[in-house]
Amino acid sequence: MRRLISRLFPPAREREEGATIAFVVVILVVMLGAGAIAVDFGQLAAERAQLQNGADAAALAVASTCAKSPGTCASGSSALSTLYGNANANDGATTIAPPTIDFTARTVTANASTLTSSGSSSMTLSFARFLGINTGSAKASATAAWVPIGKGTGFPLTFSSACFDISATSQTGAVQQFQYKPGMYCTSPSGQQIPGGWGWLDSSNCQISTQSGSTSVGSDPGNNLPLGCSTILQGWVDTIQAGGEVDVVFPIFTSSTQNGTNGSYAISGYATLKIIGWKLAGGANKTPGSFQNTAGALTALGLPAIYACSGGTDRCVIAQFIRFDVADPTPGPTPGQDYGTSSITLTK
C-alpha cells in the first residue's frame, strides 16, 4: 500500500525538478524569441540609418544644385538623389522617389525606402518569421533648404548692389571692373560705367563681421593696405598662380553715406565674387597690393584691356559674381536679400 501511494504521489523533490525543467524551457523559448526579434529588428534599424543618411545627402545635394543652378536643377534632381541614396547604402541599392522642390520656400524633400538586391521593397527576416513576422521594410525622409545668408565675417570690402548682375536663372555674371577711384563705379563688358562700386570697411587684422539689415562703418586706408591684408592677398595670388580659383563672399550694400572714414554702408545681403585681379593700394603697382590689373595681364587672360586700372592712385577689383553655397549651418538671424550666395542646411 505504501508503494502504491508513492507512485500515485511522487516525493516533493521530484515534483520540483519537473517544474524547474518546464520553467527553463519556457525561459529559453522567450529568450530565443527575444534574440530573434533583436537580430531582425536590429537589421531593420541599420537599414533605416542607411536610408536616413541617403535621404539627408540627396536633399542637401539637390538643394545645393538648386542654389547654384535654379534654372536646371529640377531636371536632374531624380538622378542626383538616386546617386547619393545608393552611395549611402551598404548594398548600393535604395529607392528614392523624385524629390519635391519648392522654389518659393527654397526647400527640397527627399524620401528613401528599402530596396533589396532582388528588387523587392521589403527585407526577408531570418528569425522573426517563426513568430509570424516574415518581412520588414524601412523608410526615411529629409528636407533641406537653401537660404540667402544674413551674416558673415571676412575680408573688409563691401560691394554695391547696383553692380550685381546674376539673373534668376544664370550661374554667373559678367566679368566687371569695380572702380573705387575716381567716383566709385562698376564697369560693364561694353565699357559703360554703372553707379556703384565698392568701399573699405573698418576692420581688425583685415577681418570684419557684418549682418544684413545693419549699417557698417567705412574706412579709408589711403595708399596703404589695412593691417593683415597683405598676408590674405598673397594667399589669393598663390592660389590663382597655382591654377586655383579664389571665390570670396562679401557684404553687399544698397546705399551709402559720404565716403572713407566718414562713410557708412547699409548692408542688405551677401554675394560671392570670383576674383581675377585687383589694385587695392594706391601708388606703387606691386603684388600683393596689386595683381593682374594691367592691360597686358588682362589681355593675356582673354579679357578686355578696358578693365585695367594700373595708373596713379587708381584702385579697382576685377571679378565676376557667381552663385555659391556656404557650409555655415546658421545663415543669420534673418536671411539677407538673395544675391546668389546661400546657406545649405537640413531643416528636418
From TrEMBL:
Region span, Disordered: 329-348
Transmembrane segments: 21-39
Keywords in alphabetical order: Membrane, Transmembrane, Transmembrane helix
Biased composition (Polar residues): 339-348
Endpoints of the signal sequence: none
Protein's UniProt keywords contain Membrane: yes
InterPro entries: Tad_N
Domain Putative Flp pilus-assembly TadG-like N-terminal: 19-64
The protein's name in its UniProt record: Putative Flp pilus-assembly TadG-like N-terminal domain-containing protein
Lineage, highest ranks first: Bacteria, Bacillati, Actinomycetota, Actinomycetes, Micrococcales
